[in-house]
Specification:
It is a single chain. With 221 residues, the chain is of the alpha+beta class. It has one domain. It is 29% helix and 12% strand. The protein is elongated.
Length: 221
């Protein structure tokens, strides 16, 4: 009679150790691949929104969406620091009706650790309560702006902190590890419609480095 073969305790421990090593190798690569896919989806959102904002500006004599009057060329722009009203206007105007565009697939938490989720409808949309993953730079005009379109940020991944105010380098809160794509990565839509994945330890403020007259702009969360 042949004895039935079976794992010994040592063999079982060896198998478990090998599986643990394989998981340790494969899991980070898999997670990185998932994040790269989400980052690409986020960039596509911004590109789509860029076309929408350009269409709005074309229909409004060159002005991009805003809630307060645009300032003179040497003035200081004071915008209401809440993106909700602008998004509602775009929705009611028929420019963007898909509320999924405002959500970055990598975004999990908003201000005060509010979970990020798509708004059920435009009436319940709140940009600072988990329904929007992006920060808007308000104050551009297609004709009057002094800025170079390829280096002028319009929309970007927001910070979980309240990142609004004068859009000048050094004023934005640092991006943290819990933000859309981590502490050193930010997708940015520029005025000419192209999107860049900015990888920089100071990605929160580097987007403003090439602005000529940032005081006429305002970041809106």
């Amino acid at each position: 009679m042949r004895k039935k073969s079976a794992f010994t305790l040592i063999e079982m421990l060896v198998v478990i150790a090998i599986l643990a090593i394989l998981v340790a190798i494969i899991l980070p690569a898999s997670m990185k691949g998932i994040e790269m896919s989400r980052r690409a989806s986020c960039a596509n959102n911004l590109k789509a929104l860029g076309s929408i904002f350009a269409a709005y500006a074309t229909d409004h004599q060159g002005e991009f969406p805003h809630k307060n009057p645009l300032p003179p060329a040497n003035g200081t722009f004071q915008e209401v620091p809440d993106f909700t009203a602008i998004v509602v206007d775009l929705y009611k105007g028929g420019y963007v009706t898909d509320l999924r565009l405002w959500i970055c697939p990598s975004d999990r938490l908003d201000n005060n650790n509010v979970p990020v989720q798509q708004a059920k409808d435009i009436a319940s949309f709140r940009s600072q309560q988990g329904n929007c993953s992006y920060m808007y730079i308000s104050g551009y005009h297609l004709i009057r702006t002094q800025e170079s379109p390829p280096t002028s940020p319009v929309l970007c991944d927001e910070s979980n902190q309240r990142d609004f105010g004068a859009a000048t380098p050094g004023n934005m809160p640092k991006i943290g590890p819990e933000d859309n794509h981590g502490a050193n990565v930010r997708n940015v839509l520029f005025l000419d419609g192209h999107v860049v994945t900015l990888k920089d330890a100071n990605a929160a403020n580097a987007i403003f480095d090439n602005l000529v007259n940032p005081k006429v702009l305002c970041s809106v969360d």
